[in-house]
């Protein structure tokens, strides 16, 4: 346990020119389990403080060559961190006590008959108080560091709207220095023409009627910074205040503008619809041109209301696939134009989430001409197959006639043999060269 206390509290420094008194004080503080170091002059105390930070310093008010208050003033001017301290004096003077406490002392003790009896408890209390202060300073430092490192604009204003605090991101993005901002009100950060609207929106936010303000803020140079601002009530340095966080939407706006350029200039028909209502929220020019609609006829309506698709069963299957996988790729659907013409479309799309809302981004490829070309090629292939079948039947018939002719020639040759006459036909494959042509006896 003593080792743990040693690590947590460091050591206690007793600054006392009376060696006997410092020895007695050290013995009384032994139960703390902390290392006790002694310094017998202000100079020795400074040397000890240069080597490390004590958990607490017991400081005798009267020191040779330099009083306790002079030592504290010297520490203030130096780079040495001021430790928590208790002042001990042999003079129980009320004015002196006030002076000592104003200097930052945790406690003020008088060298009397009960000093040693009370010393341990007073030191324990001072150590606990010092630890709480240290934690508070650490929390405040962490809190400020968190605010200071955030990239969003963070402002704290009084109930009268004056700016109390601004983080470095505010200066970086708007160009105002911290001192300049403290002379301004929160509403003055909005363009003059929007301040009345901003005031009304903030009032609605405090009533719970709105949760954010979409109005931009204006930089010192006059440029507009797109932001989304949220505010709430709180306390700052014990005073009622208004906290405001403005999320810089510059990158989002740039990304959106880039998307809009790509979306609107894309030669393929594209559409964005809300989920799960499937209402069109945006369509590009290629979509309108292909299907023959005006934008106001499409936005806010569903494909079913426009009667776009003529294969409801297939459309439902694609919807189920989208809900299960979050995307569809190369799905064929027939789509009806405003003038009734039916086109063949190849659809791909994906679910996207923006600011907590779900949308479906879809792209259509018009494959009508491709399908027509496929059908034409298919018809031509079928015609070629039919002709091939006719030729096959013709060839088979021609071959059959040729075989029958050979058989007849063989019969004639056979009859000639029976009559004692030479054969009239020479037939290939029968040991004789083929006939050059009809003989004197005619075809037979």
Structure commentary:
By secondary structure, the protein is of the alpha/beta class. The chain folds into three domains: 2-147, Response regulator (Rossmann fold), CATH 3.40.50.2300; 151-248, Beta-Lactamase, CATH 3.30.450.20; 255-366, PAS domain (Beta-Lactamase, 2-Layer Sandwich), CATH 3.30.450. It contains 15 helices and 16 strands. The strands form four sheets. Strands 2-1-3-4-5 form a five-stranded parallel sheet, with helices on both faces.
Q: Number of helix segments?
A: 15
**Physical arrangement of strands within the biggest beta sheet:** 2-1-3-4-5
What structural class do helix, strand and pairing data support? alpha/beta
Strand coverage percent: 15-25%
State the assembly state of the protein chains: single chain
Return the CATH topology of the largest domain. Rossmann fold
Radius of gyration: 50 Å
- Detail the poorly predicted runs: 1-8, 437-444
CATH class of the largest domain: Alpha Beta
**What name goes with the CATH superfamily of the largest domain?**
Response regulator
Fold topology:
Layout: H1 2-9, E1 11-15, H2 19-28, E2 35-39, H3 42-51, E3 56-60, H4 68-77, E4 85-89, H5 94-102, E5 107-110, H6 115-149, E6 153-158, E7 163-166, H7 168-174, H8 178-181, H9 195-206, E8 217-218, E9 224-225, E10 227-236, E11 239-248, H10 250-265, E12 270-274, E13 280-283, H11 285-291, H12 295-298, H13 303-306, H14 312-325, E14 327-336, E15 342-354, E16 357-366, H15 368-418
Parallel strand pairs: 1-2, 1-3, 3-4, 4-5
Antiparallel strand pairs: 6-7, 6-11, 8-9, 10-11, 12-13, 12-16, 14-15, 15-16
């Amino acid at each position: 346990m003593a080792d743990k206390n040693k690590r947590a509290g460091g050591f206690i420094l007793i600054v006392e020119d009376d060696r006997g008194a410092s020895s007695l004080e050290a013995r009384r503080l032994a139960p703390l389990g902390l290392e006790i170091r002694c310094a017998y002059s202000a100079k020795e105390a400074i040397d000890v403080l240069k080597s490390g930070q004590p958990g607490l310093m017991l400081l005798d008010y009267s020191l040779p060559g330099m009083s306790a208050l002079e030592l504290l003033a010297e520490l203030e001017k130096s780079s040495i961190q001021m430790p928590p301290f208790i002042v001990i004096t042999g003079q129980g003077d009320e004015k002196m006590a006030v002076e000592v406490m104003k200097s930052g002392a945790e406690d003020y003790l008088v060298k009397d008959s009960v000093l040693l009896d009370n010393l341990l408890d007073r030191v324990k209390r001072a150590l606990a108080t010092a630890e709480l202060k240290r934690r508070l300073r650490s929390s405040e430092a962490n809190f400020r560091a968190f605010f200071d490192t955030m990239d969003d604009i963070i402002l704290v204003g009084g109930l009268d709207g004056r700016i109390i605090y601004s983080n470095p991101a505010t200066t970086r993005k708007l160009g105002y220095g911290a001192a300049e901002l403290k002379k301004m009100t929160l509403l003055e950060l909005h363009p003059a023409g929007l301040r009345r609207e901003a005031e009304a929106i903030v009032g609605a936010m405090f009533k719970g009627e709105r949760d954010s303000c979409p109005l931009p803020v204006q930089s010192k140079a006059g440029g507009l910074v797109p932001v989304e601002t949220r505010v709430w009530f709180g306390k700052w340095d014990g005073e009622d205040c208004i906290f405001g966080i403005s999320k810089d939407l510059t990158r989002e706006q740039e990304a959106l503008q880039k998307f809009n350029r790509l979306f609107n200039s894309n030669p393929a028909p594209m559409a964005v619809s809300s989920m799960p209502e499937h209402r069109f929220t945006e369509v590009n020019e290629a979509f309108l041109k292909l299907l023959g609609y005006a934008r106001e006829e499409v936005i806010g309506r569903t494909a079913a209301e426009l009667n776009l698709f003529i294969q409801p069963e297939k459309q439902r299957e694609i919807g189920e696939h989208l809900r299960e996988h979050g995307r569809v790729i190369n799905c064929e659907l027939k789509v009806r134009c405003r003038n009734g013409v039916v086109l063949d479309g190849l659809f791909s799309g994906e679910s996207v989430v923006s600011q907590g809302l779900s949308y479906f981004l879809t792209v259509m490829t018009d494959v009508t001409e491709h399908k027509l070309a496929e059908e034409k090629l298919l018809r031509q292939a079928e015609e070629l197959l039919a002709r091939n079948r006719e030729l096959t039947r013709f060839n088979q018939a021609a071959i059959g006639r040729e075989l029958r002719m050979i058989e007849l020639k063989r019969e004639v040759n056979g009859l000639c043999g029976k009559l004692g006459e030479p054969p009239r036909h020479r037939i290939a494959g029968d040991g004789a060269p083929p006939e050059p042509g009809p003989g004197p006896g005619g075809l037979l």
